[in-house]
Design goal:
single chain, alpha+beta
């Protein structure tokens, strides 16, 4: 059965609000989240700390230009 992730052409963005006490803690939590979700090539593209937490946007590049594109494979390969 084909995985939905195999059909992603470029990247996945995740945006959330993390409860934390500082911007640096928010960054650490965002990086840890990419690892826990097993997202390859995770980058923090936005982080804004306000009062009791941080709004973060994480981008994970599933395929870069020139990569082996899984969606081009046939079912039997």
């Amino acid at each position: 059965m084909k995985k939905a992730l195999d059909s992603v052409v470029d990247a996945i963005d995740i945006e959330t609000f993390l409860y934390c006490k500082s911007e640096s803690e928010g960054k650490e939590l965002a990086e840890k989240l990419t690892q826990e979700l097993n997202l390859p090539h995770g980058d923090i593209v936005f982080l804004e700390f306000k009062a009791w937490g941080a709004r973060v946007r994480i981008r994970s590049y599933i395929h870069h230009p020139g990569d082996h594109y899984r969606w081009l494979e046939t079912e039997g390969n």
